[in-house]
Structure formats: C-alpha cells, structure tokens
Amino acid sequence: MFCPKPLRLRASAKALLSAAALCIASVSVQAQSPEELLQKADALDVKLEAKEALQIYLELEKLQPDNADVLVRIARQYRHLMADASSNDQKLKLGNIALQYGKRAAAADPKNSDAQLSCAISYGKMVPFMSNKEQVACSKAIKAGAEKAVKLNSSNDLAWHILGRWHRNVANVGGVKKMLASMIYDKLPEASNDEAVNCLEKAVKLNPGRLMHYVELGRVYAQVGRTSEACKYLEKGIAMPSVEKDDADAKAAAKELLASLK
C-alpha cells in the first residue's frame, strides 16, 4: 500500500524520537549513583509500582550484584508481580524467581535478618499453589528462615509475623499433612496456637502500624474460640489504611471471618 511521503516522514520521526527517549533514559539511569538509584527505586516500591521499581533495582544489581539489601528488594518486587499474575503457573514462576534472589541475598549476607527471611516469605507466597507434600517440605524452610531472622534481629516484626503464622498453620494442620510431615521431619515440629499468639503480639508491639499483624492475630484467636478477642483484632486491622501490597486481601479475609463470627 502506498504511504504518502509526509506520513512516512512523521512515522520515521516518531520512531527516532522514541529511540532517542529510550537512550536518554538509559544514560540517565547509568549516570546516577547507586545511592540515587536506590532512593528512586525505594520511592516506587513504597507506591507499589513493582514493574518500575524492579527495572531500577535490576540496574542497581548490575552495579552491586552481591548487595543483599538490593537482592531482598528485587525478591519483593517479583512477589508483588506474583500477586498480580493471572495464572497459577505464572505465580509460581515469579515466586521461584523471588526465591532465587532470596537465596542469593541470604548467601551474600548471612548476618542480615531481612536476607535470611526473604526465602521464607517467598515460600509462604507459593504454598497455596503447591501440593500437600510440597507444602510440608516448604514448612521446614519457612520456620528455619523466620527463626534465623529473629535471632539476628529480635526487632524484625515481619519475621515474628511469619513465625506466628507458621505456628498457627502447623498447630492446626490436617491429618494428611501430618502424615506427610512425619515422613519429611524426624518428627512433626512442635507448634501451638499459644506460641502463635506470642509471636504475633510481639509483631504488633514492634510495628503497630502494620495491619496484617492484627488480622493474623485475630485469625489465631478465632481458631481457638476466643471470639471477642478475634473480633477486636480483626476490626482493628480492617479500620487501618491499606499501605502494603497484601493489605487489601488481608482486609477482605478479615471481613469474611468477622462476619462468620457475629
């Protein structure tokens, strides 16, 4: 088909301008210091703009491939993308990428609490899409990562949260999973709802602004029949503003549970 010359020129000009913009953006990123890149990416992370934040973190990774803090941040972006993925296969794919970055972070800095926790978080995100046998196998890694994280930094509220959730899940595990657990562990690890409460109360005390702690604590109380306390913490979580990636889903689950308790 014949294309008039002015139209062809305009199309060529647009293509050149787009290419030039990409080149300028690339040079701009390369010209920034690692500190500036980190600050820019962190700002996007706070706004939950995972794709944009990830691009900058990956540029930073090229400059600092063994920086555990950067690797932890990259893992988090892949988990955020995992939450937005439409298929289970895609979720698991992104979760496994996050897991690999978490493993690199843990190896790069064995004394970094967040780095040691990263894999536990990624495993936790993937568990709903796994078989019972895979879930039990991951349980061991989740517990180990959370325990190491709190040992390195007792003020890591997210680590206490993960450990509390682990206790709640294992304390209330079903018969099939118990049988599988006995095959994977020497014996089923000790877990209790009381310990789940202790861990989650620590998480709340350390970071009272994190709504997921209240919701999870409410879930534990609901499981042990302490309805009034369950309602108190669920209502508290629901009333808080959504800030983190999982907050909206946590609120939705809390509302559903709260309705069933009343």
From TrEMBL:
InterPro entries: RMD1-3_a_helical_rpt (IPR049039), TPR-like_helical_dom_sf (IPR011990). It comes from the Bacteria. It is found in: Cytoplasm, Cytoskeleton. Residues 1-31 form the signal peptide. GO terms for cellular component: cytoplasm; mitotic spindle pole; spindle microtubule. Keywords: Cytoplasm, Cytoskeleton, Repeat, Signal, TPR repeat. GO terms for molecular function: microtubule binding. Interacts with microtubules. This is Regulator of microtubule dynamics protein 1. It comes from Roseimicrobium gellanilyticum.
